[in-house]
Amino acid sequence: MSSMDMAKSLILCTALAACLSLAAAQWNPATATFYGGPDASGTMGGACGYDNLYNAGYGALTAALSQTLFNDGASCGQCYLITCDTTKSAWCKPGTSITVSATNLCPPNYALPGGGWCGPGRPHFDMSQPAFENIGVAQAGIIPVQYQRVQCKRSGGVRFGLAGSNYFLLVNIQNLGGSGSVGAAWVKGDKTGWIQMSRNWGANWQALAGLVGQGLSFAVSSTGGQYIQFLNVVPGWWQFGQTFSNNYQNFAY
């Protein structure tokens, strides 16, 4: 069995458990603040590496996750249903909820006791202001919330943003539906076999290979356990800084 087949088997072995866990998600307590301004312009970029969140498929309904939820970038792209806890705050908008995508990290602030709201062990969402104002009054600044992870609904296909050098490929994998996040990834050039990639940071995956001038295919397993090959999605004339998609292949789980 090849290393790629072994990796796929391990992912598939955990797929059922992951899907059942997501399907049976319970409400969990957390807190929420907001950043980025009323137009969400200050939320662009971030620790997942998505840069322009509209171009990457995420838009304005996003959140930076506390260290506990961010999980060293493994949570990038995941979706969370959030509602304000009306039993604990008068600043809630009753009967409302919002689904946000994880696109950034809210780091601990060790100038504050325990690292502040995003300190270790604290589930916290630093939401875009438009997302926050769906469930709470901005004047509050911070609200108690209940959240659960949910399936992501995306428009169009998975996107691959290319960076790196002549001997190193860095791929930002964007716009995943289903579980929303990447569990494993491979790249294949016109002149190579499948090369397993590793997470560099956030949603950026790396391959220590010189692939300039070759058309590229990708294989991705979502954290939900679904495996898709994106064949010949990048033409041989690609350049660093470009993003490619076949506009239709995406994940259901």
UniProtKB/TrEMBL annotation:
<dbReference type="GO" id="GO:0016020">
    <property type="term" value="C:membrane"/>
</dbReference>
<dbReference type="InterPro" id="IPR002963">
    <property type="entry name" value="Expansin"/>
</dbReference>
<feature type="signal peptide">
    <location>
        <begin position="1"/>
        <end position="25"/>
    </location>
</feature>
<dbReference type="Pfam" id="PF03330">
    <property type="entry name" value="DPBB_1"/>
</dbReference>
<dbReference type="InterPro" id="IPR009009">
    <property type="entry name" value="RlpA-like_DPBB"/>
</dbReference>
<dbReference type="InterPro" id="IPR007112">
    <property type="entry name" value="Expansin/allergen_DPBB_dom"/>
</dbReference>
<keyword id="KW-0961">Cell wall biogenesis/degradation</keyword>
<dbReference type="GO" id="GO:0071555">
    <property type="term" value="P:cell wall organization"/>
</dbReference>
<feature type="domain" description="Expansin-like EG45">
    <location>
        <begin position="45"/>
        <end position="157"/>
    </location>
</feature>
<comment type="function">
    <text>Causes loosening and extension of plant cell walls by disrupting non-covalent bonding between cellulose microfibrils and matrix glucans. No enzymatic activity has been found.</text>
</comment>
<comment type="similarity">
    <text>Belongs to the expansin family. Expansin A subfamily.</text>
</comment>
<keyword id="KW-0472">Membrane</keyword>
<dbReference type="InterPro" id="IPR007117">
    <property type="entry name" value="Expansin_CBD"/>
</dbReference>
<dbReference type="InterPro" id="IPR036908">
    <property type="entry name" value="RlpA-like_sf"/>
</dbReference>
<protein>
    <recommendedName>
        <fullName>Expansin</fullName>
    </recommendedName>
</protein>
<feature type="domain" description="Expansin-like CBD">
    <location>
        <begin position="167"/>
        <end position="246"/>
    </location>
</feature>
<dbReference type="Pfam" id="PF01357">
    <property type="entry name" value="Expansin_C"/>
</dbReference>
<dbReference type="InterPro" id="IPR036749">
    <property type="entry name" value="Expansin_CBD_sf"/>
</dbReference>
<keyword id="KW-0964">Secreted</keyword>
<dbReference type="InterPro" id="IPR007118">
    <property type="entry name" value="Expan_Lol_pI"/>
</dbReference>
<keyword id="KW-0732">Signal</keyword>
<keyword id="KW-0134">Cell wall</keyword>
<keyword id="KW-0325">Glycoprotein</keyword>
